[in-house]
Amino acid sequence: MKFWKTLLMINIFCLLTQSYAQKIHNQQFTYSIKDSIELKAYVFTLDSLRKSENLPAIVIFHGGGWSSGEVSWSFRRAEHFAKLGFVAVAAQYRLSDQKNITPVEAMEDARDIIKWMRLNKDLIKINPNKLVGYGWSAGAHLVTSAAIFKDSNTSVSSSPNALVLVSPAVSLGKDTWFQKLLLNRVEANKVSPDENVKKGLPPTLILQGRDDTVTPLSGAQNFTNKMKLNGNICELIIYDGVGHLFTPSSERDDGFPNPDPKVQEKAYKKVAEFLRSLDYIN
Question: How far apart are CA 213 and CA 242, in angstroms?
Answer without folding.
Answer: 10
